[in-house]
Amino acid sequence: MASVGLILLAAGSSSRLGEPKQNLLYEGQPLLQRAIQTALASSCEQVLVLLGSNAEAFQASLNDLPVQTIFNPDWQEGMASSIRQGILALNDLAPDIDGAIIMVCDQPFVTTALLNDMVEQKRLHGHGIIACSYQDTLGTPALFDKQFFPELLALQIQEGAKKLLFRHAEVVTPIDFPLGTFDIDTPQDYEALQQHRFGE
User: Fold this and answer.
1) Has residue 9 been placed in a domain?
2) pTM exceeds cut of 0.90
3) How many domains does the chain have?
4) MobA-like NTP transferase domain location, by residue (predicted)?
5) Is 199's pLDDT higher than 50?
6) pLDDT of 77-109, one tens digit each?
7) What is the SS3 string spanning the chain?
8) CATH number, domain containing residue 124
9) Is 22 among the domain residues?
């Protein structure tokens, strides 16, 4: 039976937003806490949270949660550095893990059911990569078989895991997630979330 870990990326500085997106409230809960609770309720066996910018502001609220918190000292280099740190830590914590879901904290409509569906697809069919499909593209959350860990470790600067989705398109299994198109990068995005004008 396949075992899957989850790496939650939450190290960025939210420069376009002007304030830490991890602390933005949706339905009365900070986005980071919401993402962590969603991940913990899933069938993933390890949940790692990558922190960087403003890490001290978030750490205290995570101390009582059953997650592994990883500080990325190179967070300013971009997303690739957090992915590398997450994969290295996951390999250390769970060397027998079969795959990892890469997830971000600013997609508020990710559900535990979606994550479980990805894990189940992996267990049933052994897919190499399972990625969410929205707005004519593929993206996070995305599950990568362990065979792709070396390529995730080789990502550079601002490269994200999406690069692998195109490089290995022939082994990618898509899962429909229409609301995946909605993430929060700007004040306008957050306003739309609060007014439920996403997807327009």
Assistant:
1) yes
2) yes
3) 1
4) 7-170
5) no
6) 888 999 999 999 999 999 999 999 999 999 999
7) CCCEEEEEEECCCCCCCCCCHHHCEECCEEHHHHHHHHHHCCCCCEEEEEEECEHHHHHHHHCCCCCEEEECCCHHHCHHHHHHHHHHHHHHHCCCCCEEEEEECCCCCCCHHHHHHHHHHHHHHCCCEEEEEECCEEEEEEEEEHHHHHHHHCCCCCCCCHHHHHHCHHHEEEEECHHHHCCCCCHHHHHHHHCCCCCC
8) 3.90.550.10
9) yes
